Amino acid sequence: MFNSRPGGPGGFGGRRGRGQRDFETDGFAPWGEQQGRGRGRGGRLGRLFAHGDLHLVVLHLIAEKPRHGYELIKSIEAAVNGAYSPSPGTIYPALALLEEQGWVEAGSAEGGKKLYAITEAGRAYLDANRATVETMLARMAEIGASRADVPAPVIRAMENLKLALRMRMERGPLTEDAARTIAEALDRAVADIERS
Question: What percent of the chain shows pLDDT beyond 90?
Fold first, then answer.
């Protein structure tokens, strides 16, 4: 039987090459916590998923209905009311490994995207790990409820800003002019927020 913990036989550990990110741990704390800040009224939320368990949430969501990668990102983000949004660099390697294990299979969807569906082996694996999945879903619901007082348009705008900055930084180093343009845009946003 597959060991869901990293490094176990057939597990998710030991698969990274030099320079690859660890998709199991990158971004697992809700955004803001990675920089050492707490979230919500109760301070720090703690880690959202135990090491290596995101693949179970992904498999659970695919078991509900076939989904593509972007839809999985948005589903997880919505479940925690914007407190965490997994990056494509987290979701797509997890999907590739789930497919490699035979727990999901990819078909074609509209627009050439891969649409992932759960297999019978995937359902059996999910059932065998049901207690862990239920614990994670309860944690996600708790985190989502803690952010219920933040209006949805504000959460959407925060996530859009985070995504825009991440995508720009991934394109390469900033020139002096680009850095100045970004800083000025952020400063204007701060001033507008303070005036609201």
Answer: 33
Query: Is 85 exposed, middle or buried (CB count within 10 Å of its CB: 0-12, 13-18, 19+)?
Result: buried
pLDDT-derived band at 48, boundaries 50, 70, 90: low
**Which pTM does this prediction carry?**
0.57
pLDDT at 50: 63
Closest CA to 160 of 38, 50, 31, 66: 31
* 21 vs 183: CA distance, rounded Å: 28
pLDDT at 123: 96
Query: Phi then psi for 31, rounded to 5 degrees?
Result: -55, 135
Instruction: Tell me the C-alpha distance between 101 and 11, whole Å.
Output: 9
- How far is 91 from 122, CA to CA, in rounded Å? 17
Asked if 94 and 55 count as a contact pair (C-beta separation under 8 A), the reply is yes
Burial profile 13-24: b = 16 or more Cβ within 10 angstroms, e = fewer: eebeeeeeebbb
Count the Cβ atoms, other than its own, within 10 Å of residue 103: 24
SS3 135: helix
- What's the helix, strand, coil split of the chain in %, to 5? 55, 5, 40
